[in-house]
Structure formats: C-alpha cells, structure tokens
Design brief:
The complex is a heterodimer. Chain A is mainly beta. Chain A contains no helices and nine strands. Chain B is mostly beta strands. The chains are: A mainly beta, B mainly beta.
Chain lengths: 110, 123
C-alpha cells in the first residue's frame, strides 16, 4: 500500500491528453514539493517534473505538473506511442521522515 | 553527464547480507550537494525509498528499514554502497541507485538513476 495514491492506469489515443493524479495528505503532498518520474520496463526511471511544475533540461513541454492542496497532477499532452510507460509521483513525508512514492500509473496509448 | 550503474550479486540467501555498489561516472560524489540514494521496486509493485547519504556524510534511512540498512561512500568517491542485513524473501526486488537533488524545500528529486539490478533472496 503506497503512501501516495495514483490511478492504476489511464489511456488515450495518440495526440490526446492524459491526466495522472497523485493524492496524499498534509504531511506529504500538501506541504512538500512533488516530483514525477517516467519508467519504461528494463530502463532507468527518468525525472520528468520537480518542484511541482518544473521540467529538467530536455523534457518536452508536453509534460506539465501542478499541485493543489494535497493532490498533484501530471498532464501529458500530444500523447505519443513512446509515452507508454509507468509514471510515479514522489515527495517527502514529514510524519514518516521518509521519501515516499505513489504506486504508479500505467499509461497506454490506444 | 553523470551516469550510475549498480553491481552486485543477483542471488542472496535468507538471513545473509545483501551488498550492492553504485559506480558514478561523469562526476564525483564529493562534487556537490547531492543525496546519493538507493531505491527499490518489489516485483509488480511501486517504488520504495531505502535511504541516501549526503555528500558531506549525513545518512538518512527509511525508518522501516533503518535497523538493517547502511549506505556508505568509498574513498574513491566514485562508488557508494548499500548493505542490507538479515534479508528475507520480502527483500527480493530491483534495486536502483540514483542521485538526489534537493528541491526548493525539504524534498528530493532523483535524477539520474541507474538501470537497476534484480536481487533475489532464496536458498
């Protein structure tokens, strides 16, 4: 059981948009910055978003993050087949004194 | 650019000690304010943070693993290691090393990551 809650899967057609939610509490998402990661099987996970909404160099602006209260969101627009992957949110949990992650969301391009 | 690569035994017997090493290329562990980290993923499950060592030596561990975990940096400063004692089948997972960068608050974002190494605990 992950501390942060994500939907198990989302899907959309190429070119469309998907939204992935990450729900937590005041001890984690509500009071700390959220990061998002993309993970293709057999490869190294990749940082997509940090500080809730900032993109590292090289990450296309099709990926965007936001946060409101105790929930964070990752939007992927202009969906491509190469975006099929597992996506994870992560942040610090002040009560647990630990970095915590969501259970992951599998994105399927129809 | 910095790259990380995990290495170590893929099979460990129950009750024994799991030891993994992460080799850092393209940079040095002492070169900046990063958190050198270990994260694992149980089969079919999400990510679990194990702990990290700050470049100045402070160590932070997941409370759920703290009694069994140690992370250290070797004198070469291009390797850091994970030791997990008294392993059980529940420690079977893919183990990743990663560089943690402080966010604008107390959280850390992890980038880059190694490819991961599967460690199976079995007799």
């Amino acid at each position: 059981q992950s501390v942060l809650t994500q939907p198990p899967s989302v899907s959309a057609a190429p070119g469309q948009k998907v939204t992935i939610s990450c729900s937590g509490s005041s001890s984690n998402v509500g009071n700390n910055y959220v990061s998002w990661y993309q993970h293709l099987p057999g490869t190294a996970p990749k940082l997509l978003i940090y500080d809730n909404n900032k993109r590292p160099s090289g990450i296309p602006d099709r990926f965007s993050g936001s946060k409101s209260g105790t929930s964070a969101t990752l939007d992927i627009t202009g969906l491509q087949t190469g975006d099929e992957a597992e996506y994870y949110c992560g942040t610090w949990d002040t009560s647990l004194s630990a970095e915590v992650f969501g259970g992951g969301t599998k994105v399927t391009v129809l | 650019q910095v790259q990380l690569q995990e290495s170590g035994p893929g099979l460990v017997k129950p009750s024994e000690t799991l030891s993994l090493t992460c080799t850092v290329s393209g940079g040095s562990i002492s070169s900046g304010g990063y958190y050198w980290s270990w994260i694992r993923q149980h089969p079919g499950k999400g990510l679990e943070w194990i702990g990290y060592i700050y470049y100045r030596g402070n160590r932070y561990y997941n409370p759920s693993l703290k009694s069994r975990v140690a992370i250290s940096v070797d004198t070469s400063e291009i390797h850091f290691s994970l030791t997990l004692t008294s392993v059980t089948a529940a420690d079977t997972a893919v183990y990743y090393c990663a560089r943690g960068q402080p966010n604008s608050d107390s959280s850390v974002s992890f980038d880059p990551w190694g490819q991961g190494t599967l460690v199976t605990v079995s007799s």
